[in-house]
Amino acid sequence: MGAQLRVYKRRIQAVTATKKITKAMEMIAASRIVKAQRKVSASMPYATELTRAVTAVATGSTTKHPLTTEAEAPGRAAILLITSDRGLAGGYSSNALKAAERLRERLAAEGKEVDAYIVGRKGVAYYGFRERKVAESWTGFTDSPEYSDAKRVAAPLIEAIQKDTAEGGVDELHIVFTEFVSMMTQNAVDDRMLPLSLDTAAQESSEKGEILPLFDFEPSAEDVLDALLPRYVESRIYNALLQAAASEHAARRRAMKSATDNAGDLIKSLSRLANAARQAEITQEISEIVGGAGALSDASAGSDK
Question: What global pTM score does this model have?
């Protein structure tokens, strides 16, 4: 019985240590969410105004440009998938991977070849395990991305959209990331970055009551679009990275809170078992003492006779 009690005590100590770790991770994730939310909010105005500017230039000219012109027969697409570098975040990365798989299947059904660009060790490991080809990959910054990281990710994508498909280029750029809605809700979404859907952008501006400005282009609309292309792609990727980071911290906080609560419940259960084992041990000791005392009493009574 004593051995069983020692087993329970060791398990309680181990679970208590785990609970301290998960609680600390929960608090760290909670503190980082606020900072990540501020970055998301700060990046939105620039991304919105840049999209409006691109839409205004494109609708105000007849220039054909990779930023706004649909290919007649698109045959190749690129998918930028944003996952996490670390685990312990519930279904955060797996949801993004599932969304990317659905997009990949849809593009393949349309007859398009797909090039994969991966951000985060979880996505790289997923594709590596399945021996799938990855055009480019980046790791080490998913929980706290900077604009320089977005520029680094955007560079090969911009190069790919500017090339002909015969030279290894692509006709479309898609991005899969986890959109931060609230502390409790994060949705894995896929969005087409390029070519920019002018009808959708104009409709969104109309719904917000915005009027697209009219511009005179100097030296030309094409030169303006050439200058805006990298800025547009970088801003979209940066905003997606920031939303993904906020979503990752929120998912990790929720996962660690669940782990902490489960550890507390397990400690209570083990404590009850340990108390029951201790009571059984005490009862057995008392029984042995009473039995021994009775035996001594019987022995003394027999010797007196």
Answer: 0.82
